[in-house]
Amino acid sequence: PAAVVASGVTKVYGTGDAAVHALRGVDVAFARGAFTAIMGPSGSGKSTLMHCLAGLDTVTSGRVALGDVELTSLGDKRLTLLRRERVGFVFQAFNLLPTLTAEQNILLPLELAGRRPDRAWFDHVIDVVGLRDRLTHRPNELSGGQQQRVACARALVARPEVIFADEPTGNLDSRSGAEVLGFLRSSVREMGQTIVMVTHDPVAASHADRVVFLRDGLIVSELTGPTPDTVL
Ligand code: ADP
Ligand code: ADP
């Protein structure tokens, strides 16, 4: 079964004359262990779709399932719990706590959830992300690319079923962006992680296995397999 499935998803903001139809019937499935990019012009509904898939926002109609759990049938409390247990997030702004070291930032979500870190898994994540010699550094002692890799490690350490990444390279220069994307790719290859990434950067999207294009709240086309930059 797919890791995430959206069926007939619509999202309307506001009512009456002010209503904005941000999603107009989206059907899409994200396979386990795949790295998918969602692209589209500004205002096409990318962030709205990601928020609906991740259970950060409710749909107006249609259904979203995360594995075997139908999100659209859950109340707020269970949704929050499910998100904590099954979903990881990486955002454009790295959202690290400035007073904590890299290691403390990475372990914080587990601590907040009252879970004990699995030390072997933590070590594995740190090696994949290449932060072994940066664990005691605070965010202001790290480059942008390193900070985003800390944010990726923080998302991965709880072993989420899916990582949602919203413009993860939006604040990075192209070299640091390539580093972060390389790391996301390795987490798919070496850990079987499922990743759904929103981006408007064709170079970022070219690292994905599949690219889905949104326009005016609908999926209008997609590319699978290696995607040369020249196609995007
Ligand atoms: P994208 O991420 O592709 O730029 P969004 O999902 O942010 O697109 O927005 C899709 C449409 O929904 C746009 O017309 C946007 O103005 C509108 N929209 C997004 N969020 C809200 C909101 N909270 N209230 C009203 N309209 C919104
Ligand atoms: P919780 O009640 O478990 O904290 P939240 O809805 O506050 O659940 O958010 C879940 C995760 O997603 C948190 O890591 C939060 O920081 C992040 N998050 C939620 N909404 C946004 C948003 N609009 N932009 C950035 N991060 C967000």
Structure description:
One of its GO terms (cellular component) is membrane protein complex. One of its GO terms (molecular function) is ATP hydrolysis activity. InterPro entries: AAA+_ATPase (IPR003593), ABC_transporter-like_ATP-bd (IPR003439), ABC_transpr_LolD-like (IPR015854), MacB-like_ATP-bd (IPR017911), P-loop_NTPase (IPR027417). Keywords: ATP-binding, Nucleotide-binding, Transport. This is Putative ABC transport system ATP-binding protein. With 232 residues, the chain is of the alpha/beta class. 33% of the residues lie in helices and 26% in strands. The strands form two sheets. It has a six-stranded mixed beta sheet with strand order 6-7-8-3-9-10, with helices on both faces. It has a four-stranded antiparallel beta sheet with strand order 2-1-4-5, covered by helices on one side. A hairpin with a 2-residue loop joins strand 4 and strand 5. Helix 5 runs parallel beside helix 6. The chain is globular, with a radius of gyration of 17 Å. The protein starts with a strand and ends in an 8-residue tail after the last strand. The model has no long low-confidence stretch (mean pLDDT 91). Bound molecules: adenosine-5'-diphosphate (2 copies). The site of one adenosine-5'-diphosphate has 12 residues, from strand 2 and helix 1.
